[in-house]
Amino acid sequence: MNKIEIKDLCLVFGKDGCVIAVNNVNLSIQEGEIFVIMGLSGSGKSTLLRCINGLKHRTSGEISINGTNITETSKKELIQMRRKVLAMVFLLEDILPLLTRTNSPVWVVNNRREFQCTIPLSRLITEITGKNKTEINEIIQNSIDS
C-alpha cells in the first residue's frame, strides 16, 4: 500500500476559479521513499503540501495517507496525522542564523520535555557543529517519536 496517494488533485482560487494553484496532480509515495517537490517560487509547492496535510481544502481530487482518505477525517484526526505522520519543514535561511537555542521554535517544542543538553543556550544555531549537532538532531527526533 502507498503511504501517500494523490489522484487528480486540483485547487483553484479567486472569483470563478480564475487562479489554478494545483492542477490535476497524481502521485504515489511508498514507505521509505524520499520524494522532493521542486519548482519556482509561486508554482504551487507549498499549496500542494498544504492540501496533502489538510491545511487547505482541495477543489477536487483524492488524497489518501496510510490508506485513509483525509477528506473524510475529523479535525482531531488531521491534527494527530500532522503530528505523527506528515509534517512540513520550510527552509528559513534568512531567519535561522539569527536564532539562539532559547528563541528557536525547535527549542520551544523540545523544552516541554526533560532532557540533558550540554550546549550553551546562548550559542547561535549556526555555531553548533559536529557532536553537538548530532545531539540536537537526536533530541529533535526523540521529541518527534514520543
Mean pLDDT: 74
Architecture of the largest domain, according to CATH? 3-Layer(aba) Sandwich
Could you name the CATH topology of the largest domain? Rossmann fold
CATH class of the largest domain: Alpha Beta
Work out the number of β strands. Answer: 4
- For the record, the count of structural domains works out to 2
H/E topology pattern: EEHEEHHH
Overall body shape: globular
Tell me the radius of gyration. Answer: 18 Å
- The portion of residues forming beta strands comes to 15-25%
Distance between the termini: 25 Å
Largest sheet: 4 strands, antiparallel
Structural class: alpha+beta
InterPro entries: ABC_osmolyte_uptake_ATP-bind, ABC_transporter-like_ATP-bd, P-loop_NTPase
Pfam family, one: ABC_tran
Protein name: ABC transporter
GO molecular function: ATP binding; ATP hydrolysis activity
List the helices and strands and how they pair.
Blueprint: E1 4-13, E2 19-29, H1 45-52, E3 60-65, E4 68-69, H2 75-84, H3 105-110, H4 130-145
Verbal overview:
The chain has helices at residues 45-52, 75-84, 105-110, 130-145, and strands at residues 4-13, 19-29, 60-65, 68-69. The protein is globular. Helices cover 27% and strands 20% of the residues. The two termini are 25 Å apart. It has 4 helices and 4 strands, in the order E-E-H-E-E-H-H-H. Residues 92-96 have low confidence and may be disordered. The protein has 2 domains: 4-84, Rossmann fold (3-Layer(aba) Sandwich); 96-145, no CATH class. It has a 4-stranded antiparallel beta sheet with strand order 2-1-3-4, covered by helices on one side. By secondary structure, it is α+β, with helices and mostly antiparallel strands. Strand 1 (4-13) and strand 2 (19-29) form a beta hairpin.
